[in-house]
């Protein structure tokens, strides 16, 4: 909980606001604090009295949803300074995030966990099917990690700063076919916070502000037994966000794309419309994702694959790096000339059910 | 150490028939009498049309591998039971169901024909469906 307070303080100071200005509070469930009631626990600890609170939990993508929900609440006049926080310490707690068989809690668990379904093996099934239908290769997936590591070398806070090659990835040990250890994100402690404000509040701030141009979310699931492991709900969340923003994939200068696994990025790239369905493998080849010169520079902090996946939830850092890019505060070696950025999250598991959330952001000089 | 018996599901009023049928050697799916949807996992209301007129239907127990992944390391799962093949099997009746393929992982591929078998758990009144290769 101390981490929530520390990141909240940092974000408010960055925004040149004070704790007393906050009247909207957004956070998702914190697995360490089961059984939930996160908004009560956290408002108590942080000393907040919000007029509006939201604890939408879409797994790791939650915090991207919170940005969209905060923008709606502000438009509705429910609040004008919304604070969003995330924190957790799964690494210190020794949690086997990707490869642990967890307790039975829901009806679905009895049809999934008893078979030893883990995050890695579920995303592994998605990768296997994508390879089968579209000819995607392990080397193409590996390029996603290699590109992320290319960026992480410039991030002094990244957990893994050493660049890796495609060969390094495909030669790392298999965790669950066809995913290698280096196809998986890190397990890390940490947190993050965002502040979303109204137009009126913004005009008085001594800080560059980034505009929420468009937002969309959706949920993908078993569909009663018709699950399609090669696609995510990013097609729905993305098209809604693009429509609201009045832009298309071709207008995006920088993209933060949730990278729980390399396949998560590949499917999202296709479903967001950056390339045709099934063409993600060839799309990422040739340095497309590498900043600053690639056509679609992504995750310039090193992403969840190399830098940080705080509390096993990567949505927060996706928004933060997109904001950094638009404020021209990214690490200089990977700074992109960006007016419009996108942050996209895939929470939960594409192997069973997942939340998709997309936000399109615009810089001050746009 | 090995899973013997295997992990067991939570049996609820909504799913009890599914698990007890498995102990009798039968795989069941749900069929909506209004819209005709055949679905898995079992729910009391049709997930397409919310009809309450849903019946149990005996499945053939045959299908093909839609996708699979072989876990080499897992925490909380006995070493002796690894590697573990997690899979979606597309049943002849249509629905894709998550399960294990009890086979040499190197012999499993997408499209492989599989047939259901049932594994005992601590509770003798229920069993867990898994699949094996048809020609294996």
Layout of strands and helices, then pairs:
The complex is a heterodimer of chains A (366) and B (136).
Chain A: H1 2-14, E1 24-26, H2 38-46, E2 52-54, H3 62-75, E3 81-88, H4 109-112, H5 119-134, H6 138-152, H7 166-171, E4 174-176, E5 179-180, E6 190-197, H8 199-202, E7 211-220, H9 234-245, E8 254-257, H10 262-271, H11 280-284, H12 303-306, H13 315-326, E9 340-349, E10 353-362
Parallel strand pairs in A: 1-2, 1-3, 8-9
Antiparallel strand pairs in A: 3-6, 4-5, 7-10, 9-10
Helix pairs in contact in A: 6-10, 9-10
Chain B: H1 16-23, E1 28-32, E2 38-39, E3 54-58, E4 62-71, E5 84-91, E6 96-100, E7 113-120, E8 127-133
Antiparallel strand pairs in B: 1-2, 1-3, 4-5, 4-7, 5-6, 7-8
Structural category of chain B is: mainly beta
Please mark out the parts of chain B with pLDDT under 50 across 5 or more consecutive residues, or reply none: none
| Range of strand content of chain B | 35-45%
Strand order of the largest sheet of chain B: 6-5-4-7-8
Number of domains of chain A: 2
Q: Trace the largest sheet of chain A across and list its strands.
A: 2-1-3-6
* Relevant CATH superfamily of the largest domain in chain A: Thiolase/Chalcone synthase
Order of helices and strands of chain A: HEHEHEHHHHEEEHEHEHHHHEE
Radius of gyration of chain A: 19 Å
Task: Describe the structure in your own words.
The complex is a heterodimer of chains A (366) and B (136). Chain A is α/β, with parallel strands linked by helices and 366 residues long. Chain A folds into two domains: 2-91 and 190-202, Thiolase/Chalcone synthase (Peroxisomal Thiolase, Chain A, domain 1); 109-187 and 211-362, Thiolase/Chalcone synthase (Peroxisomal Thiolase, Chain A, domain 1), CATH 3.40.47. Chain A has helices at residues 2-14, 38-46, 62-75, 109-112, 119-134, 138-152, 166-171, 199-202, 234-245, 262-271, 280-284, 303-306, 315-326, and strands at 24-26, 52-54, 81-88, 174-176, 179-180, 190-197, 211-220, 254-257, 340-349, 353-362. In chain A, the strands form three sheets. Chain A has a four-stranded mixed beta sheet, sandwiched between helices. In chain A, strands 7-10-9-8 form a four-stranded mixed beta sheet, sandwiched between helices. Chain A has a two-stranded antiparallel ribbon with strand order 4-5. The model of chain A has no long low-confidence stretch (mean pLDDT 94). Chain B has one helix and eight strands, in the order αββββββββ. The model of chain B has no long low-confidence stretch (mean pLDDT 95). Chain B is mainly beta and 136 residues long. Chain B has a five-stranded antiparallel beta sheet. In chain B, a hairpin with a 5-residue loop joins strand 1 (28-32) and strand 2 (38-39). Chain B has one domain. The A-B interface holds A 96, 99-102, 104, 107-118, 120-122, 124-129, 132, 173-179, 222, 224-227, 229, 352 and B 6-12, 14-15, 37-41, 47-48, 66-77, 84, 86-88, 94-100, 105, 110, 128, 130.
């Amino acid at each position: 909980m101390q981490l929530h307070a520390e990141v909240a303080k940092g974000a408010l100071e960055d925004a040149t606001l004070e704790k007393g200005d906050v009247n909207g509070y957004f956070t998702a469930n914190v697995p360490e604090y089961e059984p939930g009631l996160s908004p009560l626990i956290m408002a108590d600890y942080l000393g907040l009295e919000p007029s509006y609170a939201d604890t939408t939990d879409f797994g790791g993508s939650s915090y991207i949803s919170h940005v969209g929900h905060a923008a709606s609440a502000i438009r509705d006049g429910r609040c004008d300074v919304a604070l969003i926080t995330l924190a957790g310490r799964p690494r210190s707690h020794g949690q086997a995030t990707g490869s642990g068989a967890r307790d039975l809690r829901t009806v679905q668990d009895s049809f999934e966990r008893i078979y030893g379904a883990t995050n890695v093996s579920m995303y592994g099934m998605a990768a296997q099917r994508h390879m089968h239908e579209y000819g995607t290769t392990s080397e193409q997936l590996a390029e996603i990690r290699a590109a992320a590591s290319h960026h992480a070398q410039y991030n002094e806070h990244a957990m893994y700063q050493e660049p890796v090659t495609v060969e390094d990835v495909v030669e790392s040990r298999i965790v669950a076919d066809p995913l290698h250890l280096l196809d998986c994100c890190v397990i890390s402690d940490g947190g993050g916070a965002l502040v979303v404000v109204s137009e009126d509040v913004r005009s008085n701030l001594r800080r560059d502000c980034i505009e929420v141009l468009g937002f969309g979310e959706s949920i993908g699931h078993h569909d009663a037994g018709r699950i399609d492991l090669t696609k995510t709900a990013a097609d729905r969340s993305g098209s809604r966000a693009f429509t609201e923003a009045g832009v298309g994939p071709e207008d995006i200068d920088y993209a933060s794309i949730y990278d729980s696994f390399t396949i998560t990025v590949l499917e999202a790239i296709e479903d967001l419309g950056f390339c045709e369905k099934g063409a993600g493998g060839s799309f990422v080849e040739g340095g497309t994702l590498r900043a600053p010169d690639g056509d679609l520079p992504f995750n310039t902090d090193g992403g969840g694959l190399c830098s940080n996946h705080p509390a096993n939830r990567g949505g927060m850092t996706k928004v933060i790096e997109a904001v950094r890019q638009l404020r021209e505060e990214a690490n200089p070696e990977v700074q992109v000339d960006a007016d419009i950025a996108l942050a996209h999250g895939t929470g939960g598991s594409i192997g069973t059910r997942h939340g998709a959330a997309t936000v399109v952001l615009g810089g001050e000089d746009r | 150490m090995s899973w013997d018996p295997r992990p067991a599901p939570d049996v609820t009023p909504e799913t009890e028939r599914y698990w007890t049928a498995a102990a009798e050697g039968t795989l069941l799916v749900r069929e909506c009498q209004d819209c005709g949807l055949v679905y898995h996992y079992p729910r009391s209301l049709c997930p397409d049309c919310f009809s309450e007129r849903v019946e149990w239907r005996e499945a053939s127990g045959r299908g093909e591998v839609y996708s699979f992944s072989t876990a080499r390391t897992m925490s909380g799962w006995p070493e002796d039971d690894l590697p573990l093949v997690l899979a979606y099997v597309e049943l002849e009746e249509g629905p894709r169901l998550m399960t294990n393929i009890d086979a040499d992982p190197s012999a499993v591929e997408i499209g492989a024909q599989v047939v259901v078998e049932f594994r005992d758990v601590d509770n003798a009144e229920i069993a867990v469906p898994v699949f094996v290769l048809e020609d294996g």
